[in-house]
Amino acid sequence: MASTIHGCPVEGGGRPGTVVEVDSERAMVELATRGACGDEMSCGHCSVFTVQVPRVRVPRDGLDVGDEVRVYPPEGSGYLSMAFLFVLPPVLAVIGFVVGGAVVSGEVGQTVAAVAGGVLGLLVAAVLATLVNRKFEATSGFRAERV
Description:
By secondary structure, the chain is an alpha+beta fold. It has helices at 77-103, 107-138, and strands spanning 3-5, 8-10, 15-22, 26-31, 55-59, 68-72, 143-146. It has two domains: 3-74 and 140-146, CATH 2.40.50; 77-136. The strands form two sheets. It has a five-stranded antiparallel beta sheet with strand order 5-4-3-6-7, with no helix packed on it. Helix 1 (77-103) runs antiparallel to helix 2.
């Protein structure tokens, strides 16, 4: 499976971008986009409502504002994203359904508890995914190399 950055496939060559901000430890890279829908560089960003250019944080490693770079995603990041998006929510929802239905007696009570448990499971999955996303944003595994 090919790695992606902001939904766009990245083969061995990474994705081009320009350093737009730097601090002592990190650099903000604005990823290149061009053309209309269907262009490989506009992947995942084709919309009349899209006004924000995709950006990623990378270790500074001597980069300065204006440097042209190629950005590479962390290894395995696509699999982790898929797990949090497609595996965790249904698994926690099913666990919530089972636990909720087992805790309460009576047919109506079990149904209500099962549904409540399922919804709670989905909420827990959403909170976990959000927390993990914040951690990964803070410690981005993306790397950039000058072109």
